[in-house]
Write a structure and sequence with these properties.
Elements (H helix, E strand, L loop, with lengths): L2 H5 L5 H9 L2 E4 L6 H10 L6 E5 L8 E7 L2 E7 L5 E5 L14 E2 L3 E2 L6 E2 L5 E3 L20 E5 L2 E5 L7 H4 L3 H7 L6 H7 E11 L3 H9 L4 H4 L4 H4 E2 L6 E5 L2 E5 L1 E2 L14 E6 L3 E6 L2 E11 L2 E11 L4 H29 L6 E3 L6 H17 L2
Antiparallel strand pairs: 1-21, 2-11, 3-4, 3-6, 4-5, 7-8, 8-9, 10-11, 12-20, 13-16, 14-15, 15-17, 17-18, 18-19, 19-20
């Protein structure tokens, strides 16, 4: 594929970088164009480490989890020896899924024709295959992907030869711990328990969602009765830092007097790893999510909500309700934007650089991926 032609011929990344430094966003047709979408899936999501699930979901031998690594359907198992194994979730027969839900199992079974696989991905059996001339079961193992763990999560990479997550991001541990996020999975297993899973289908481009999720310039208006009611969203009081492909935020509780029964936070901090991985720790709750593009104009987000085991669970779930309401407001806002951008009447966005620094950071990372691909 001629990437230069498919994306638009005379693509000038250097000029786009200069424009971004002055506050101008990417061409808005990048938020609707199928060619840009396919390019980003190939050059960003199919080559990156992506969050799959909390470590709690794959604790015991036989635990199985499904998801996506870019456009690649994946399944991760914990085998009999307690090792995590990752595979493309396609039967070697006709490409049906070998796992269709997260569950505990002793083998992976394709429900289409009954082919089975061991938890280490090796072919186990298939109806009539023993009688099939030239059938070599040693060649029928599931196709591998890379799998790793870090902090509260299990991560996947569609590239089976991908370097380990910590090698890909050598500053990750130090930076996360400095931001207040322990990096040892055991801490999260001992401290937190699963509370709920919330899924969102954003009818908007993933980059539009990312812009929204990275800044709080919109918080006083869009989140006036949710997030902004509980936290101080004045940009001067928000702690923000960026390095490599990750960034952190810390919001302070609001100083406004809280009526009886109103939620009152003690502390909050957030951590994001490009592309689309987010973690928010606040009081007795932990939110961990991955946002994955589905089409040029739709994005799927799965948010795992955990609470501290010794927490007041009723209070913790009230906070989860507030976060859920906040993200639903973001969902509505980005869907309105997407419909407008589809008109083609707004060529570029103009950011407010003294308020939307995190947005500029994310857009620099996106442009860096384009630049790398065109070298």
């Amino acid at each position: 594929m001629n990437k230069q032609f498919r994306i638009g011929g005379d693509l000038d990344i250097a000029q786009l970088e200069r424009d971004l430094a002055e506050g101008w966003g990417m061409p808005t047709d990048w938020y609707t164009n199928p060619d840009n979408f396919e390019f980003e899936m190939e050059e960003i999501f199919s080559k990156s480490w992506l969050f799959l699930c909390p470590v709690h979901s794959l604790k015991e031998p036989g635990d199985t989890m499904i998801g996506w690594a870019g456009k690649v359907p994946v399944v991760v198992t914990k085998d009999r020896e307690g090792k995590l194994r990752g595979f493309v979730n396609l039967c070697r027969h006709r490409g049906y899924a070998v796992a269709r839900e997260a569950k505990k199992c002793s083998v992976l079974t394709c429900a289409y024709h009954g082919w089975t696989y061991n938890l280490d991905g090796t072919f186990r059996d298939g109806p009539n295959t023993k009688e099939e001339p030239g059938f070599d079961k040693s060649q029928m193992s599931l196709m591998p992907i890379s799998v790793d763990t870090w902090g509260p999560g299990v991560f996947v990479n569609a590239n089976p030869q991908a370097e380990p997550l910590r090698d890909a991001h050598p500053q990750l541990d130090r930076y996360a711990e400095k931001a207040g996020f322990p990096t040892d999975a055991e801490y999260y297993l001992e401290t937190y328990g699963p509370a709920r899973v919330i899924e969102y289908d954003f009818q908007s481009n993933w980059k539009l969602w990312y812009d929204n999720n990275s800044e709080c310039y919109h918080c006083p208006t869009i989140h006036a009765t949710t997030f902004s009611d509980a936290f101080d969203v004045d940009n001067e009081n928000v702690t923000f830092a960026e390095v490599d492909e990750f960034m952190t935020f810390a919001f302070n509780p609001t100083d406004e007097p809280r009526p009886e029964g109103k939620l009152k936070a003690q502390w909050q901090r957030a951590f994001q790893l490009f592309p689309g991985i987010g973690m928010t720790a606040q009081d007795d709750i932990l939110l961990v999510y991955q946002t994955l593009p589905e089409t040029p104009e739709s994005t799927h987000k799965v948010m795992y909500c955990l609470t501290k085991k010794d927490a007041d669970q009723e209070l913790a779930h009230r906070w989860l309700d507030l976060w859920d309401a906040t993200f639903k407001e973001d969902q509505e806002a980005t869907q309105i934007q997407q419909k407008g951008l589809r008109s083609g009447r707004l060529p570029r966005a103009r950011y407010v650089t003294n308020q939307e620094g995190p947005v500029l950071f994310i857009n620099r990372l996106i442009l860096a991926a384009y630049k790398k691909a065109f070298r």
